[in-house]
Amino acid sequence: GLTPATLGDSDSLVVGDEVVAVGAPFGLESTVTSGIVSALNRPVTTKGERSGTATVFPAIQTDAAINPGNSGGPLIDLEGNVVGINTAIRTSTGSSGTQGGSIGLGFAIPISDAVAIVEQLRAGEQATHARIGVSVGVSADDVGLPGGALVQSVEEGTAADEAGLKEGDVITEVDGVPITDANSLVATVRSYRPGDTVALTITASRPNGEAMGEPREVEIELGSD
Q1: Among 17, 73, 120, 181, which residue's Cβ finds the most Cβ atoms within 10 Å?
Q2: Rounded to two decimals, what is the model's pTM?
Q3: Three-state SS annotation for 88-106
């Protein structure tokens, strides 16, 4: 029989860790490539083949060669533990998906995130992700502020509402992790679990994009979608 793979802990990965990607690129079965963890919690947007719905997830970025046919294969650390599920590549055209060829920008779903979803499904529950209860649209750069995710609306009764977030606030950090735009906020928040407590660094802004006052920090308990 087959020996089950050992699942590792993607939360313990650090940039520079050596990893191995296994798959069947272009139908070439049992292909093994090696590289390092290039970045963590990289915001990656993919579209479902059936639904066509765009989804942002916090990915492990690796320079191990990943090509069409690698998707669904494991990303493994040097101890033989699965730390990610190879999912997408960035092509020379700038798109994220599974088409094209490797240019050293591959992305994998962290195994800890995948396990959390599997456990929910096994329990007969719907898979959920962490959220803070705001809608963000454009980058704060677009309104003249130095980076961050611009809050467009706050859902009533959510943790964000109770913490006093308002339309026009700019979220610049989550637990000290810099936020550059809406996608980086979604990816960073999704790297946590519903019920976790995080600290948000907020700067208020006027309608003309001018910053108002000093940044403030608020703690909120993450909800679920």
Answers
A1: 73
A2: 0.74
A3: EEECCCCCEECCCCCCCCE
